[in-house]
Design a protein that fits this description.
Structural class: mainly alpha
Helix content: 55-70%
Number of helices: 10
Oligomer: single chain
Order of helices and strands: HHHHHHHHHH
Length: about 170
Amino acid sequence: MKYSLEDYEQQYGVLKAPFALRLIIWYLLKHYLLAFIQLIALLPKIKRSMGETMLVFEKFAYSHSTFLFVLSCIPVLLVFISLFKRAPKTESPFLRNVWRQGRILLMISAILEIILIMGYVLLELRQLTEFWLIVAYIDVVILIYLFRSERVKDVFAEFPDFEAEEK
């Protein structure tokens, strides 16, 4: 046996997504959080109640995320949804296929983010700061992990077989 019994979900009998994989998914969704902060900043009542703190968050969000970065997160969003729908009652062939291609979709999001960073810097729309270097570095580490990890490959190979709900 390649993995211990504790590595499997008892309820469905599939390999659990490791903590590192879940952390990667949350990290790659960061532009949705930044977009959410930008939306909240548009609400005058919240802006007034949070005062200077909201201005700092708003400035950070506006300077570190764009619509293109949000679009680059779409593949990861699909994987995120399929992670939470990973159960026998999930009938959707689309979500099952998304899960099977999850590793590649996560890699695509990381690659798109690196390309966007490089594009913004080369077009002189953004300066290459420590923040962008760290983000690019983390993305490269994520790509290496996703490419080399046997556990991640095995996790994305398993989705519980469909079982119709009994009435």
